[in-house]
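Can't paste images in this forum, so I'm doing it all in text. The chain is below; anyone willing to post the predicted structure tokens underneath?
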Amino acid sequence: MTNLAQFRVLVAVAETGGIRAAADRIHRTPSAVSMTLKQLEDEFGGALFEGERKTRLTRFGEFVVDHARDLLEHSDRVSRSINSFMHNGAGSIEIAVLPSITLTFLPNALRTFRGDRNAAVVRVRDLDSHAIIEAVSREVIDWGIASYHRLPDIDAQPLFSEPLSLVVRTDDPLCEMNGPIPWEALRDRPFIGNGICDGIDTPAFLAISERQIMHARSTLSLLSIVREGIGITVLPSLTRIGGVDGLRFLPIDDPNARRNVSLLSRADRNMSPAARRFATIMQELIAVHACEYGLDI
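Text version of the structure:
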């Protein structure tokens, strides 16, 4: 019967691209790694890698490695929570939030949570929506806050909606235009795509997105790229709260250019009392300060 140690060996080989590199990573001998892979293939009844060098996974191997990662991440999260409980009597909470939430609501939520004398350790991941949805779906985190497209295994509690903005340098000619910027004004401009763009289905914008010169997932990277004059992009209006020297956030003449943000958790999983309390604090803070940040509840 397979065990976690065997799955760790498999994932190490898949990620390092070979038996010797994997052996160095996990401090095992190459022969021990090879034996473990053979045991797994015998157990499953199928080849995990193509060829003897173990540098490329088969389709079956890719399937097994994906599930092995899920299992290992879940095991590691449980171990961290148990260890935290041993030290503080309350365990730990693992969450993932959008960068704009990290800059605005997270600090006050943490302050309130600690003020309630909650001893649980809070572990925060700063990710984009796609990564957060994947982490929730794979049960790597207790809950997340992200833009959301409905999935059957995820429970979504709507938090707010906000307009998207066109991000340009302060010396960009678009800053001289009166009123919201129409998509047609970007027709000949180099555009930097990102995950937010997936939620805009206006034909005029899709034509612009198809001609993007690059795609970036990190908000910090996007802001830096625009600041260097390489191109322009679209980001949530809330992003400007973090400090955007040298940049302007311009309104867009498109009612569909918005993002809807929800608190996400696994529909088939009960959160711990500490995780549920922290989620409630975050929801209450967003509701109280929505107008301040120009959000629609």
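The chain is about 40% helix and 20% strand. The two ends are 50 Å apart (CA to CA).
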